[in-house]
C-alpha cells in the first residue's frame, strides 16, 4: 500500500484551495500564438480584463462550466490596434453629403459631376459634397474661376464641397452670401479667402478655417442631423472594428455641430465598439473663455469608461499643398503670395496661453503641425507648458517636415510624434508634388520617421482615415517599406500602433499590450505578421476583434 507523505498531502490541499480561490474566467482563448509571449498559448479573461497569459495546462485553473472556451486554431493574438488619429465620426457618414466629384477632373471636367449632384439631390437646402483636386481648380490655364463654374450649375442653392484633406472648400455665391463673405470681408484667424489674382473678385475657394466656418453652417442646417450623425458614427465604428482597432484617438470633435451628444448617446446605448479619446476642437477664431467653460463641463479622465475626454485637438497650421503649412523658409510657389511662410490657426503666443489654461482644467493637446515652422512653434509651446509644471502627454500629429534642430526636442520634451503612412505615395517616396512648393531639399526631408525614432522619442502610427487607408496593417507595412526614412523592423511598427499610441493617450496602464491586469483588447489575425515580409503584412486577415473581453468583430459572421 502506497503511503502519501504529509508534505505531498499539504501541497495537494494547498493547490485545491488555490483553485477554489481563483476567480473563474469568463472567456478562455486557447491554442493561440500570442504577440510578446512566445511560450504562451492561452489567455484567460475575467470581467473584461486579462486574468492570465500562459500555457493551456495552467489555464485550466481558471476554467469552470460557465467559462466560454474559444479554440483559436493557432491564430495570432495581438494587442488591439490603437488608431491615434482617426476621423471615425465623419469618414463613413453620409451626413457630410453624398455629392462626390472627381479627384482627377479638370475644372470644366467637374461640370458633369456637379450636374449629377444637382439631379440626385431634390432638397433646396445646403448641398454638401467632397472630392476635387485643388491644383485642377486653380490651374492658371483655366478660362473661368471655380466660382463662375459652380454658380452656373447652382445659381441659388448654397453648396460647399470639401477637398479630401478637409483643408479647402469649393463654395458658390449663395453659400458665400449666407456666410456673409464678400471680397472686403476680413479673413478669420486660421483661414484664407481666395480671390482671382487678376480681377480681385472672390474665386469660390476657401482655405482652412474660412472653409470650416461655412461647412459648420451647412452641417448645422441638416434635417435629421442627429440621426444622420449617429448612423454615420456607428458605420465608422463598425469599419474600424473590422480592422482590429479597439481604441481610437478622435481626429477632432466639432462640438458646435452636436457631435458630443451623438457620442454620449452611442455610449448610453451600448453601441461603442472601441474605446475613444474624444478631442474637442479648439475653434481658432473664437475667444478662449467660453470654450474653456464648455470644456470644463465635459472633461473626463475616467479610464473605466469607453469615452475619455482629456485631450483637445488644436491646429498650429494648415497643409503644404495649400501653402498654409507654416514653414521656416518661404514657399517657392504658393497660392498665397501675401503669406509666403504659410499661416497659423493658433498663433505661437496664443498656443502657450492655451496649453496653460487647458492644463488647469485637465486637458493635454493633440496638435496638428505639418510645416517645420509649426513643429518648432508647437514644441516651443509644449516646452513652455513643461516649464510651468505640466506632465501631461502631448502629441504633434503629421509632423511632415521637421528642422534638424528640432528632431531631438521630441524626446527631450516627452512629446509624441504621430505619423500617417497609409498612402502609396509615402512608400514610393514620390514627393514631386512638394518640390514645386518647397524645393528638392525640403521635399526629400518629408516624413522622416527614422530620424525621430532614432532619438528614442515616442512615435506612433495612425490612419487619419479617411484621408489615408484605415487598415493599421497597411501603415505597419508601409512604415517598414519606406527604407531609410522608415521604421527599422516590424516590432517597432507594431509598437507604434499599440503601446506607443497608448502612451500618447495616457492610457498605457489600461491597454496597448497583452499583460495581466490590462483590458482584454485584442486583434486576432490569421498569421503571425512578425514572420511575414512587409509586402504580405498588409494582406493579413483580421479574424476577430475583442474589446474588454467582448467580441466586437468576427470575420465568420
SSE order and pairing:
Elements: H1 6-21, E1 27-30, E2 33-34, E3 42-46, E4 49-54, H2 56-59, E5 68-71, E6 76-79, E7 81-86, H3 88-91, E8 99-100, H4 111-120, E9 127-130, H5 134-137, H6 146-153, E10 159-162, E11 168-171, H7 173-178, E12 191-195, E13 202-208, H8 209-219, H9 225-241, E14 245-250, H10 259-268, E15 275-277, H11 288-298, E16 307-308, E17 311-315, H12 348-360, E18 364-369, H13 372-387, E19 394-398, H14 409-412, E20 415-419, H15 424-428, H16 432-438, H17 440-444, H18 449-453, E21 459-461, H19 472-481, H20 490-496, H21 499-505, E22 522-525, H22 534-537, E23 542-547, E24 550-554
Parallel strand pairs: 1-5, 2-6, 7-14, 8-9, 9-10, 14-15, 15-16, 17-18, 18-19, 19-20, 20-21
Antiparallel strand pairs: 1-3, 3-4, 6-22, 10-11, 11-13, 12-13, 22-23, 23-24
Helix vs. strand class:
alpha/beta
Please outline the major beta sheet.
6 strands, mixed
- Rounded radius of gyration (Å): 26 Å
What characteristic shape results from the CA principal axes?
A: globular
Q: Helical segment tally?
A: 22
List how many beta strands DSSP finds.
24
| Helix percentage range | 25-40%
Low-confidence stretches: none
Describe the 3D structure:
There is one protein chain. By secondary structure, the chain is of the alpha/beta class. It has 22 helices and 24 strands. The protein has a six-stranded mixed sheet with strand order 8-9-10-11-13-12, with helices on both faces. Strand 19 (394-398), helix 14 (409-412) and strand 20 (415-419) form a beta-alpha-beta unit. Helix 9 (225-241) crosses helix 10 (259-268), helix 12 crosses helix 13 (372-387) and helix 19 packs across helix 20 (490-496). It is globular and about 100 Å long.
